């Protein structure tokens, strides 16, 4: 199906000719620069309309074109880190005609996806995983006697992640591995003065590489002592270089280093890539690119154009849960000088920019290092501070051991603000927050709050900080739902047991739906439909779900005293989740021995909506599915 606009060929005459790496290679060099301009215009047009990651992709246009002109995908493996800088790669590898569907239901993913294209060598929705995977590809090629190359495009943000350095520590020199360090924000290595500049130029020259390879082969051919001589010369050369120019971490690790160079000059990048292929050694190419290049607003404030919402996004008024959390946390820190905030390179996404501006001394951006963030918070807490760690649910998975060993075991007062909880349709399963309820519920000494209105968020924040011990406050992406607020928060005053009802419970209901989070919106619709069929239905909305037995004791007091059907509803995984745990807790109570209990949860953790589906439909958790499931269960009980 052709999803391009009718005037696509007129507006983008060069891009309309390119839908594969072979098409790109066929273009004469003089057409590459205007093609880059067309691609940038197309990205701005599409992402402005449909949403997505803009600034990072504008910065890697020349880089991506150069890679596909030099290497042979899919035989050669191309891995992006973080994966959201893969948009140009997708345009060049057969997905141009469906690019307008990116991040849409039934459309292509905003990240590399192996099941989507043979050109997507490895899925990289989470940062700093690329080099470990690239090493695996390169080693497999070596073992299988393949002459394929592995190209790892590593953003400098991803470079802050610990996994990258673990992988660097395991790099071997004899692999067909080319690491491209794409520096667009932070300075990793400074090269000052004429000597350093001339060295970079020399080391990036074809003559230098050929000369080095010639002498390497020559000395290795000398019987008995040739390899020893070559190693001694290399040792001497590195010692002289370190004395004059300083140490280079990459060469110290055995990688051949080239750069830094201008990554927004395609001909420069292409030349370096061709020379890297001649190195016959694992190498790293250090490029500097401009994030947001070609779009003035994104050039000036690239962080604001990192991720864009669709132009058709709804109500622009009000604040999101993330923003509200950040503002309230800053207000709390105004009077409590022990409160501090930590983010893992997500200050804007998690709403902490306001705190950063108001309390810069107590704000810590630790880079893409969730494990460090949690243990760092534990250290702060152990020495008298009240640390808050704001992190997306999906990224908190990385810090699970730290949470158990460093926070829970020592019963330290660390507060986690778990953002993007539940299903997140735009970024797909790599960013779904559907595991945290199950894994956090297993952590001793941890309280879990699940506010779904701003008034509840503020109350839960206050309790999380001042009730002792560790706590997690989880909330969804976006803003509060006015319908949920009007039904469950007509009286916004806090409730002591953190359990709310949309109306007084009937004395003998046919079914009570117990739920938490944004899925209550679907429960409300299902209730209306079930009532139209003559059933009496009640809904209880939980604002706290752990410690499970303690909260289940409160729930027991709110449930009808006569046996009735109880359905636990959640948008997270079933195994170890809310429904499974609360069902087990109620069954331990003799008074609930005769209550039929049922759990409705996410059956497929990696759900992807098809065209025309909502994420609720795809997960089989939309109101029609709930009505069907509840009716079927009632018929059997």
Structure in words:
This protein is of the alpha/beta class and 637 residues long. It has 3 domains: 8-189 and 248-305, Thiamin diphosphate (ThDP)-binding fold, Pyr/PP domains (Rossmann fold, 3-Layer(aba) Sandwich); 321-474, Rossmann fold (3-Layer(aba) Sandwich), CATH 3.40.50.970; 500-636, Rossmann fold (3-Layer(aba) Sandwich), CATH 3.40.50. Helix content is 42%, strand content 14%. It contains 27 helices and 17 strands. It has a 7-stranded mixed sheet, with helices on both faces. It has a 5-stranded parallel sheet with strand order 1-2-3-5-4, with helices on both faces. Helix 5 (61-70) packs parallel to helix 13. The longest helix has 20 residues, at 226-245. The two termini are 48 Å apart. The model is unreliable at 186-204 (pLDDT under 50).
CATH fold name of the largest domain: Rossmann fold
What is the distance, rounded to the nearest whole angstrom, between the alpha carbons of the first and last residues? 48 Å
Which consecutive residue ranges, at least 5 long each, have pLDDT under 50? 186-204
Strand portion, in percent? 5-15%
CATH class of the largest domain: Alpha Beta
Strand order of the largest sheet: 7-6-8-9-11-10-15
Helix content: 40-55%
Radius of gyration: 28 Å
The overall number of domains is 3
Shape: globular
Structural class: alpha/beta
Q: Please provide the count of β strands.
A: 17
Give the CATH superfamily of the largest domain: Thiamin diphosphate (ThDP)-binding fold, Pyr/PP domains
């Amino acid at each position: 199906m052709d999803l391009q606009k009718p005037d696509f060929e007129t507006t983008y005459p060069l891009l309309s000719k390119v839908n594969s790496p072979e098409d790109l290679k066929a273009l004469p060099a003089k057409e590459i620069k205007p093609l880059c301009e067309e691609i940038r215009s197309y990205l701005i047009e599409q992402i402005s309309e449909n949403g997505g990651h803009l600034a990072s992709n504008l910065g890697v246009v020349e880089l991506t074109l150069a890679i596909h002109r030099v290497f042979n995908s899919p035989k050669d493996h191309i891995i992006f880190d973080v994966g959201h800088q893969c948009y140009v790669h997708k345009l060049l590898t057969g997905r141009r005609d469906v690019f307008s569907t990116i991040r849409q239901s039934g459309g292509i993913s905003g990240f590399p996806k192996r099941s989507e294209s043979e050109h997507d060598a490895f899925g990289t929705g989470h940062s700093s995983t690329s080099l470990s995977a690239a090493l695996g590809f390169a080693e497999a090629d070596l073992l299988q006697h393949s002459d394929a190359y592995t190209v790892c495009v590593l953003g400098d943000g991803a470079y802050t992640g610990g996994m990258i350095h673990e992988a660097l520590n395991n790099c071997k020199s004899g692999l067909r591995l080319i690491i491209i360090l794409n520096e667009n924000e932070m300075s990793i290595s400074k090269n000052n003065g004429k000597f350093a500049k001339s060295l970079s130029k020399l080391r990036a020259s074809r003559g230098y590489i050929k000369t080095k390879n010639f002498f390497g082969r020559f000395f290795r051919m000398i019987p008995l002592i040739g390899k020893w001589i070559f190693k001694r010369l290399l040792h001497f050369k590195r010692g002289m270089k370190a004395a004059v120019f300083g140490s280079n971490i990459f060469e110290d690790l055995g990688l051949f280093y080239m750069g830094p160079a201008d990554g927004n000059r395609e001909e420069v990048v292409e030349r370096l890539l061709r020379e890297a292929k001649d190195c016959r050694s694992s190498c790293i190419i250090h490029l500097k690119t401009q994030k947001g290049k070609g779009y003035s607003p994104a050039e000036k404030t690239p962080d604001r154009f990192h991720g864009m919402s669709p132009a058709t996004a709804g109500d622009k008024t009000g604040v999101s849960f993330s923003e509200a959390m950040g503002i309230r946390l800053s207000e709390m820190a105004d009077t409590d000088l022990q409160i501090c905030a930590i983010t893992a390179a997500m200050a804007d996404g998690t709403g902490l920019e306001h705190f950063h501006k108001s309390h810069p001394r107590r704000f810590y951006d630790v880079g893409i290092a969730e494990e460090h963030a949690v243990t760092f918070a534990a250290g702060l807490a152990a020495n008298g501070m009240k640390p808050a760690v704001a992190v997306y649910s999906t990224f908190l998975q990385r810090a699970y051991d730290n949470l158990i060993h460093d926070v829970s075991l020592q019963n330290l007062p660390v507060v986690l603000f778990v953002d993007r909880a539940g299903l997140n349709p735009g970024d797909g399963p790599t960013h779904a927050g559907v595991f945290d309820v199950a894994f956090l519920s297993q952590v001793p000494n941890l309280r879990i709050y699940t506010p779904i209105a701003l008034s509840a968020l503020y109350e839960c924040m206050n309790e999380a900080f001042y009730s002792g011990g560790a706590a997690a406050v989880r909330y969804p992406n976006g803003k509060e739902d006015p319908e949920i607020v009007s039904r469950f928060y007509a009286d916004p005053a806090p409730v002591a047991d953190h359990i709310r009802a949309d109306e007084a419970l009937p004395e003998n209901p046919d079914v009570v739906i117990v739920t938490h989070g944004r899925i209550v919106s679907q429960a409300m619709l299902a209730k209306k439909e079930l009532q139209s069929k003559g059933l009496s239905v009640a809904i209880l909305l939980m604002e706290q779900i752990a410690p499970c037995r303690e909260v289940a004791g409160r729930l027991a007091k709110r449930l009808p005293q006569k046996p009735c059907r109880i359905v636990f509803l959640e948008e997270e995984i079933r195994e170890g989740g809310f429904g499974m745990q609360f069902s087990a807790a109620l069954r331990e109570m003799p008074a609930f021995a005769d209550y039929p209990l049922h759990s409705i949860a996410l059956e497929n953790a990696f759900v992807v909506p098809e065209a025309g589906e909502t994420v609720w439909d795809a997960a089989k958790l939309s109101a029609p599915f709930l009505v069907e499931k509840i009716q079927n269960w009632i018929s059997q009980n």
